[in-house]
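User: Hey, quick favor. My workstation is busy. Could you predict this chain's structure for me?
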Amino acid sequence: MSIKAEEISALIKQQLENYQAELNVEETGTVTYVGDGIARAHGLNNALSGELLEFSNGVFGMVQNLESNDVGIVIMGNYDGIHEGDVVKRTGRIMEVPVGDALIGRVVNPLGEPLDGKGAIQTTKTRPVENKAPGVMQRKSVEQPLQTGIKAIDALVPIGRGQRELIIGDRKTGKTTIAIDTILNQKDQDMICIYVAIGQKESTVRTQVETLRRYGAMDYTIVVSAGPSEPAPMLYLAPYAGAAMGEEFMYNGKHVLIVYDDLSKQADAYRELSLILRRPPGREAYPGDIFYTHSRLLERAAKLSDDLGGGSMTALPFVETKAGDVSAYIPTNVISITDGQVFLDGDYFNSGTRPAIDAGTSVSRVGGDAQIKAMKKVAGTLRLDLASYRELESFAQFGSDLDKATQAKLARGRRTVEVLKQPLHQPLSVENQVMILYALTHGFLDNVPVDDIQRFQDELFDFIASNNKELTDEIRETKQLPDTDKMDAAIKSFAEHFQPTKEAK
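Assistant: No problem, here it is.
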């Protein structure tokens, strides 16, 4: 068989025409150390801080330390499959999480991976976990109220949309309950809620998710959970991931409420990371940039200007104190970054005053700007009355011969404390709050036994809803207090028919 030279040359020409030089250049390094959620790698000379790296087993890591001879990497996921000598390569991307409407109603980890067994999250949108906070001129002052549905907060330490209000207190004083009740109260309020559970027991998070689902709150809520069994990097990353998910809605003109439960555990995780990365420890062994860690997170909460769509992100960070010590390092740091704090007192909680809010220590730096005019009128002197009652109460224990004015003050104070108590998962609409606080401040409860206050309140709401619905409608629509004569007449009409319980005191 003869081979024709023309055929061979035609074939070679064809091959040359179709030839494509595929050259794939990747910058890789070698893992020199791995352990406790941390890896070190040599050879990644051009790696950037915060850049995403991929290990040979598919797990990702984030560049945290840039040193002369190697880079410190925090591992995002299980590090058991990573060994010394493994290859790690640059991706050229920074740490991102999926965002968008597809996340609403889901329980995810800090990487945006589902934990609820409902399948993959159908979204193509992502946002970087670290993002620059809005500047001075991109913001607007806080003026819209965020109704928590909790009388003691809405009356004494009001929260506005775009505010950062710290919830601070010892362990087991009802911090998470305040967060859950606030989320429940956002139903039909045009608000998207994000609950970030940092280092919370998996069983506790499951209980909270079930509570939210039972009351229909998961329809507008995202839960981000990093359990205590997760590596420290996941706990450190969780609040930033939650903030990125919230920013997607905020920059699209929507309103977001984000709860960080709690930042003490995030600070502990960051301390662990930093010490393993051999960063120099500072006060209480925390690294020097722990303040910056929290400030760059909390500053991302804002009320945006109208030019940027007027969206808002309200942050409720939690900090756990030890034996009520608000002067410890992390509490003082976060107090100085936030716009006020709601302090929960363990003694109040144990004595049955729940929510256990200490009005004397709690403060809102936005204050009355975040209250409707009706609430401002009825709650004006409430804080002072409560403070003077607490003072009188401690002195009254030592003397029995009290004048009538003091006795009247003590009686009013006891009723104020009783009115501000609230059962679990029963947030109140702002119009009902105004109604009961009006009754309190105008003396309609002075003759009602303390034990009957809660029953008086519930029956008053039913009476108003049946006979004087126009009053609550007016408060809701105009934000103003209706005519005092009408209010007095309605409450008086109910009070006359109210039957106290015989055993009540």
